[in-house]
């Protein structure tokens, strides 16, 4: 335990406090509900996002959305709150029994609240402190010669705020309010969702190159400047820096908040950015602060690592700078899932996280389900591969083998199987759904034949217009060719196969996502996800692919789940939304 007097005397302390759960107290999106001490100037007030997980009860739209109960700013003096948000509805943890000591609980329980989100931020702050103390900065690799034993609390705060990622909105659906738009620096999300991989540099593992300045000092009315040079020689992408940029999405200096971030989406290779930290109306002769910058430094190319479940990515790295502290200005990094360029008190807003004009669906469909299935043969194995244009091809490769018998089936076009409720191929070197899956639900101009074409209780959304809005139009399963003669033989267990899904993506495609699954038994499917969630690379017709190895099983199935806005799947491994489509083969 420590006193507030000790807190003020030791600048390594950082108070991280739950913002409160009064965001729906007497209504929706209720302002000025962040409590004390989360409303303090130098600590971090933490709001809550919806959580993510296949087993979550009462699932919402996922961690790209602030949850309905999270308390909102501003503070009484107009400062932005919360500072950060993190998953807090629902969180699964040990179900310790009250008033019992020494018991070993076997139960797990879900809890919801910003008191679940604040420990997430605290744990990550501890990791960042360890990062500096063990010498990971600046090389991204542990080096005792680089150890920084006493990073300030202001530096930890700057790093956390700098790496925060933009959210899409507030999920008020369970309270009958739909989705409320939200963007960075508003009083729903503050700087955004905590993201460690966008906050510190680990060689080959995270999205940013990092520069820091800790315990800097500026006199009242004074200005400190710092120059950073962009180096994309190793492949890090960037665009033009251009004009002066102001913090926190503003078009002029921010004289209200003492934590500030500037994000510039892209800079030119070799360009130098000048960061200016200006002291305005401070309460003493000088003010200490911490400054953080993330960008294309040292020519290192930055690549998103791991599965993105958040529904918000940007196409290219940028750069970001961030000062923060005890009461001085703060600048920080990109909203995108890749690095950003950011400069001190000057900023143009980075990628906006406003939801699209298509509202997410709040109601799951009640339609019954049906779906396609693939049966691999135990014999030899021909395969029809996608054409070089990316379109699924129905022609098989000519075989050089002189043995015709078991390799003569060739690629097959599925027919609708009424007992399974999905398209099915009986054998062949490839299985092609043909036109059976074309369209989605009862959407305007594109009714899907035999909808919904799924095996277990997954239904399609019915809103939108054919080849304007989302749909899965075709699924093809082919052998991943190794150039051998048996590529024209029937598919069999152990074969490496590729699923090609021809889909229609809405607008620019950046809000549409696809999951691939397989099941070894179509009669009683247990779905296994293939790889990471994919985002449409552009709007219009796209060919999305995933590969896996055929397991043992007489009637096998593959599933493609397309969704508008990244969502948590149901227990049946599909999503329910007005623009979502799930199809099996």
Going across the biggest sheet, name each strand in turn: 17-20-21-23-26
Class by helix and strand content?
A: mainly beta
Quote the beta fraction: 25-35%
Q: What's the count of strands?
A: 28
Low-confidence stretches: 238-243, 311-406
State the oligomer. single chain
In short:
The chain is 6% helix and 26% strand. The protein contains 3 helices and 28 strands.
Structure description:
With 585 residues, the protein is mainly beta. It has helices at 4-9, 114-133, 153-162; strands at 16-18, 44-50, 65-67, 84-89, 91-94, 108-111, 169-171, 179-181, 209-219, 223-229, 262-264, 272-278, 286-295, 319-324, 373-374, 381-382, 411-413, 415-417, 422-425, 430-432, 471-479, 488-489, 496-505, 512-519, 528-535, 540-549, 557-564, 581-584. The strands form nine sheets. A five-stranded mixed beta sheet has the order 17-20-21-23-26, with no helix packed on it. Strands 9-13-14-11 form a four-stranded antiparallel beta sheet. The protein is elongated and about 85 Å long. It starts with a helix and ends with a strand.
């Amino acid at each position: 335990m420590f006193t507030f007097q000790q807190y003020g005397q030791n600048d390594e302390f950082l108070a991280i406090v739950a913002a409160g759960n009064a965001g729906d107290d007497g209504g929706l999106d209720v302002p000025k509900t962040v409590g004390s001490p989360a409303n303090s100037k130098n600590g971090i007030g933490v709001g809550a996002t919806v959580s993510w997980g296949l087993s979550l009860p009462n699932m919402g739209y996922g961690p790209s959305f602030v949850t309905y109960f999270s308390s909102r700013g501003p503070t009484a003096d107009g400062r932005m709150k919360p500072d950060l948000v993190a998953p807090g509805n629902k969180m699964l943890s040990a179900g310790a029994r009250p008033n019992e000591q020494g018991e070993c609980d076997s139960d797990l329980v879900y809890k919801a609240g910003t008191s679940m989100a604040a420990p997430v931020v605290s744990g990550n702050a501890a990791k960042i402190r360890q990062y500096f103390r063990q010498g990971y900065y600046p090389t991204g690799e542990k080096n005792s010669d680089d150890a920084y034993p006493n990073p300030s609390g202001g530096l930890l705060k700057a790093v956390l705020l700098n790496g925060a990622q933009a959210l899409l909105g507030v999920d008020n659906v369970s309270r009958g309010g739909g989705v409320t738009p939200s963007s960075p620096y508003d009083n729903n999300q503050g700087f955004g969702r905590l993201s460690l991989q966008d906050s510190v540099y680990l060689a080959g593992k995270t999205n940013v190159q990092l520069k820091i300045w800790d315990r800097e000092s500026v006199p009242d009315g004074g200005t400190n400047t710092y120059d950073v040079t962009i180096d994309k020689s190793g492949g890090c992408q960037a665009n033009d820096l251009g004009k002066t940029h102001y913090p926190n999405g503003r078009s002029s200096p921010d004289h209200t908040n003492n934590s500030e971030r500037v994000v510039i989406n892209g800079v030119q290779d070799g360009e130098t950015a000048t960061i200016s930290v200006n002291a305005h109306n401070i309460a003493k002769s000088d003010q200490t602060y911490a400054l953080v910058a993330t960008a294309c430094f040292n020519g290192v190319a930055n690549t998103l690592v791991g599965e993105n479940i958040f529904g918000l990515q940007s196409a290219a790295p940028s750069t970001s700078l961030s000062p923060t502290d005890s009461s001085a200005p703060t600048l920080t990094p990109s909203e995108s899932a890749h690095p950003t360029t950011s400069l001190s008190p000057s900023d143009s807003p980075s990628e906006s996280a406003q939801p699209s004009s298509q509202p997410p669906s709040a109601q799951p469909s009640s339609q019954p389900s049906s779906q396609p299935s693939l049966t691999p043969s135990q014999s030899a194995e021909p395969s029809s591969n996608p054409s070089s244009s990316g379109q699924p091809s129905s022609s098989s490769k000519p075989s050089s083998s002189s043995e015709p018998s078991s390799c003569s089936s060739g690629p097959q076009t599925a027919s609708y199987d009424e007992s399974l409720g999905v398209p099915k191929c009986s054998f062949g070197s490839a299985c092609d759904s043909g036109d059976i899956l074309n369209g989605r639900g009862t959407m305007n101009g594109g009714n899907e034949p035999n909808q919904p074409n799924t095996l277990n209780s997954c239904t399609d959304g019915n809103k939108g217009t054919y080849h304007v809005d989302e749909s899965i139009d075709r699924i093809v399963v082919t052998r991943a060719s190794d150039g051998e003669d048996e590529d024209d033989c029937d598919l069999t267990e152990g074969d490496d196969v590729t699923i090609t899904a021809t889909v229609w993506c809405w607008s620019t495609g950046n809000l549409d996502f696809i999951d691939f699954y397989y099941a070894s038994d179509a009669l009683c499917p247990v779905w296994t996800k293939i790889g990471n969630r994919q985002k449409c690379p552009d709007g219009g017709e796209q060919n999305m692919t995933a590969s896996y190895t055929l397991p043992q099983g007489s009637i096998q199935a593959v599933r493609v789940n397309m969704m508008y806005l990244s969502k948590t799947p149901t227990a049946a491994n599909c999503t329910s939304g007005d623009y979502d489509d799930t199809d099996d083969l």
